Amino acid sequence: MAANKEDVKLLAMVESPFVGRVDIALNLKGIQYKYEVENLKNKSELLLKSNPVYKKVPVLVHNEKSISESLVILEYIDETWTQNPILPSDPYKRALARFWSKFIDDKVIDAARKALYSHDEKEREKGAEEIDEALHLLENELKDKFFGGEEIGIVDITAVIIAYWLPIIQEAFGEKLFTSDKFPKLYNWSQDFNNHPIVKEHLPPRETLMIYYKGHYERHIASK
Amino acid sequence: MAANKEDVKLLAMVESPFVGRVDIALNLKGIQYKYEVENLKNKSELLLKSNPVYKKVPVLVHNEKSISESLVILEYIDETWTQNPILPSDPYKRALARFWSKFIDDKVIDAARKALYSHDEKEREKGAEEIDEALHLLENELKDKFFGGEEIGIVDITAVIIAYWLPIIQEAFGEKLFTSDKFPKLYNWSQDFNNHPIVKEHLPPRETLMIYYKGHYERHIASK
Questions:
Q1: What is the pLDDT of residues A77-136, one digit of tens each?
Q2: Which GO terms describe its molecular function (chains A, B) (predicted)?
């Protein structure tokens, strides 16, 4: 890991896939940073001051300048530390990478929330159809080992929520949204991604997430 | 307007504020392009082929490569034609510009839709409160003539929906969400923005939008 004299802090919560994105990107870049766990029931002064709009993690604090919103942070990281680029250099390829990253945030996550957390059965069914369609689009988009080509790029990092979180969350909720038989290419990609040495080292323990999302299931679904 | 030999097309719909963003950015850059109006009830082959995921305008087609999603297109335009930059050069300032552009898309537009289009009175009230809060955050963020400083930047362009569209839409719906007494700085900014010579020349006629959004009001609200 490269040494850096700069002050870099990541305001974090282990269970958040959005924090996971930033964590992976910083480690792919070889940046040293402090991982500061926030208690969302008792948010730190630093969190409230550095993300007054959303008051959410992740926040990257770099030499006292704070940046919020995981996709915005990923672009900042790539522009600030230019080694191991996560965005392509060609403007058109950059546009495509941004398009698919945004697609994951706008479509996959929204559909997954609906499919898993809605109390209305019809809404849950609709969410399941939408995530199916969205994952098929991603399945068709995957041309190489990674969305970024031979190396991990911003779309792969954004999609950690599909590669690592979704299989655990769907198990906690007793659903099957993302399976190897329906999405064989995406499944192979998820294995390659999760087993990438740097990614693997920085993913939170499966058991930690399972307990957390089973708690979600109990509170949001089972008890209603 | 600078000459360019390249083939640039904007698949468009006059009434769309998202198209308006791209139109303004291309003109601020002095790019020559064809403005191709789509009929959304009978979409062109080119639209279906170039934006298969959303099948929506705007789409920028540059030398047969197509880019969708207005914020993604704005970044592409800035990286492809570097004159009159719309994003700052400093990575931190770029991050802030991306944060506020995304904020407008995620918060202001979502709240405005709820405040204007929801059939549930409580939802409409909630939307009105949310847009009030979001516009106050933008009011506080406005430090110079424009969000971009002395020149128009990506946040200003993204916010054309507030500067030009919102006053017309709220009038069509008989609502008062954005007013000069509640948001004096933002109101002054909107006047400066709308009257910028290049912006002014490329905004759609007020009357065209009024007819279109009164139609929305009749179909979505008045007839229910």
A1: 999 999 999 999 999 999 999 999 999 999 999 999 999 999 999 999 999 999 999 999
A2: glutathione transferase activity
- Tell me which chain A residue has its CA closest to the CA of residue B134: A53
The share of chain B scoring above pLDDT 90, in percent, equals 95
pLDDT at residue B1 is higher than 50: no
Average pLDDT over residues A12-22: 98
Nearest CA in chain B to A133: B53
- With beta carbons under 8 A apart, name residues in chain B contacting A95: 67, 72-73, 75-76
ipTM of the complex: 0.96
**In the predicted structure, residue A1 carries a pLDDT above the cut 50:** no
User: Are the C-beta atoms of residues B3 and B31 closer than 8 Å to each other?
Assistant: no
Check residue B4 and give its pLDDT. 55
A42-49 LR contacts (CB < 8 Å, sep 24+): A44/A11, A46/A9, A46/A11, A47/A11
Tell me the shortest Cα–Cα distance from B87 to chain A, in angstroms: 13
Distance of alpha carbon A200 from alpha carbon A12, whole angstroms: 18
Residue B14's domain is classified under what CATH number?
A: 3.40.30.10
Instruction: Provide the pLDDT for residue B222.
Output: 82
Question: CA-to-CA distance for A151 and B28, rounded, in angstroms?
Answer: 36
Beta strands B34-37 and B59-62 are unpaired
Which range marks the domain in which residue A19 is found?
A: 8-80
Cα–Cα distances in Å, from B111 out to A5, A165, B108?
42, 29, 5
CATH code, A213: 1.20.1050.10
Spatial distance between the Cα atoms of A98 and A85, rounded to a whole number of angstroms: 14
> Residue A53 and residue B79: Cβ atoms within 8 Å?
no
Domain total in chain A? 2
Those of residues 6-65 in B touching chain A at CB distance below 8 A are 53, 62, 65
Interface check B1 vs A, CB under 8 A: no
Work out the mean pLDDT of chain B and round it to a whole number: 96
